[in-house]
């Protein structure tokens, strides 16, 4: 059985990409077969895993437009992760998709063909609620919502949940919300603790533990083209992601 998780939040810079790269690496350490999918035209996930997005001939854009199969676009990173990469061509593909039939189903249909090769598929959504994020929600079993524990984090969660509700009603009735994952968390401040608790209570969402601590090591990792789990093997941030990954595996049964 493959579990597909969309890591989504239309707010930018909340650690979606970091979460996908780190959980993917942690699940790989647990001997899971993992596919990461970069759905952001900025190609940050692709870049952070050591691949130059502009060097690619075939990307997820071609898969969504139907000119390539997912299996022909997937690359294997230096760390041995399987990645369906992206680059700026995804921006124009997104515009073209708006007028194309089945635009919200295309990712699911493409991933169905390779799903048997993977235990987990992690989808890195762009910071928007457009066709790419809706396509990811349509392909996913579950959504993980990274949030930054600050007051403004509230804004947007309701809008994302409305989109999830619509997707569930019209496209993908099995979609569940795994929960909110506090990132860049400073547990020494009661403010951060209060914000996380308030978000969980307001939206009746599970809060995933442990929260991911704020650490400069995350910002450094992409410069090496490696996940933090490889550049800082014993760091508390890496360990938090490892614990989340272990809990995901346990819950999958
Ligand atoms: N726990 C953390 N502590 C400190 N910095 C972090 C942490 N997690 C992520 N960062 C840094 O925060 C920035 C934003 O992270 P990231 O790119 O993962 O967010 P994102 O939600 O994917 O962004 P976008 O919405 O633009 O795609 C990056 O510079 C990243 O290195």
From TrEMBL:
Highest rank taxon of the organism: Bacteria
Listed SUPFAM superfamilies: P-loop containing nucleoside triphosphate hydrolases (SSF52540)
Domain AAA: 3-176
Listed transmembrane segments: none
This protein's name: Chromosome partitioning protein
Organism lineage string: Bacteria, Bacillati, Actinomycetota, Actinomycetes, Propionibacteriales
